[in-house]
Design brief:
- It is built from one helix and 13 strands; from the N terminus they run βββββββαββββββ.
- The chain has about 190 residues and is mainly β.
- The strands form three sheets. Strands 1, 2, 3, 4, 7, 10, 11, 12 and 13 form a nine-stranded antiparallel beta sheet that branches.
- A hairpin with a 5-residue loop joins strand 5 and strand 6.
- The longest helix is centred in the middle third of the chain and has 8 residues.
- The radius of gyration is 20 Å and the shape is globular.
- The two termini are about 15 Å apart.
C-alpha cells in the first residue's frame, strides 16, 4: 500500500551539512551519534544541494542478426556533487587546495598555494533533515575529489567551489552507506 507520508524532501542539518576527516578517523555507524572531532564542518553548500550519481555503465554483446545476448557491467561510479559556498572558511580552502597548501587566519591573512598535487582520499559525511524530524547521514569511507568546477568571481553570485567526490570502496566494499532515523519522541512509522 502506498503511503504519502513516506515521501520527503531534504534540508541541510543546521550548522553545516558536509564534513571531512582523514582516513582512519572513527567512522559513524548511525544517523544521530556525534561525529568524531576529526570531522571538520565545511559550512554552507549552495541551494542546488547535493547530487549523488550511482548509475552503472554496461556493454552489450550482440549476436549476428542483432539480438543482444549478453550485458556486462563495465563500471558503477558513485559520485557526490555539491558546491561549498563558505569560501572564507579555512577548512573549505584546505578541502579544495590541500591541507598543507593553506595557512594563516582570516584576521592575520590567509595564504593559498594552488599546486598540481593530487589531493588525498578523505572520509566524508553529509547530514540532512527529512520529513517528520527524520535525519539522514551519508557516509563515504574513502572519497577523493575527482573534479573541481570553475570558480566564478562576480558581484551577483556567491564565490564557491563545486566539488565532485568519487566514492571509493571501503574495507567492506561499500562505496557509501546511508543511515536514516527518526528523532526520539516524534512518533510515526
Amino acid at each position: 500500500m502506498s503511503d504519502a507520508k513516506k515521501v520527503t524532501v531534504s534540508k541541510p542539518k543546521v550548522g553545516g551539512a558536509v564534513y571531512r576527516a582523514p582516513l582512519g578517523t572513527t567512522p559513524p555507524t548511525d544517523a544521530t551519534t556525534a561525529l568524531d572531532k576529526a570531522f571538520k564542518s565545511l559550512g554552507y553548500i549552495s541551494e542546488d544541494g547535493l547530487t549523488n550519481s550511482n548509475s552503472p555503465s554496461s556493454e552489450n554483446t550482440t549476436a549476428w542478426g542483432g539480438d543482444t545476448v549478453l550485458t556486462q557491467q563495465t563500471e558503477k561510479p558513485d559520485t557526490f556533487t555539491f558546491k561549498l559556498i563558505s569560501s572564507l572558511d579555512l577548512d573549505v580552502l584546505k578541502a579544495v587546495y590541500g591541507d598543507g597548501n593553506v595557512s594563516g587566519t582570516l584576521a592575520d591573512g590567509i595564504t593559498v598555494t594552488a599546486t598540481g598535487e593530487e589531493l588525498p582520499e578523505k572520509q566524508w559525511v553529509i547530514d540532512m533533515v527529512m520529513r517528520d524530524n527524520a535525519v539522514k547521514r551519508i557516509y563515504i569511507p574513502s572519497g577523493s575529489i575527482s573534479e573541481i568546477g570553475e570558480i566564478v568571481y562576480k558581484d551577483d553570485e556567491e564565490v564557491g567551489y563545486e566539488l565532485t567526490i568519487m566514492a571509493m570502496p571501503g574495507s567492506d566494499g561499500a562505496t557509501h552507506k546511508e543511515f536514516i532515523k527518526r528523532a526520539a519522541g516524534t512518533g510515526g512509522g
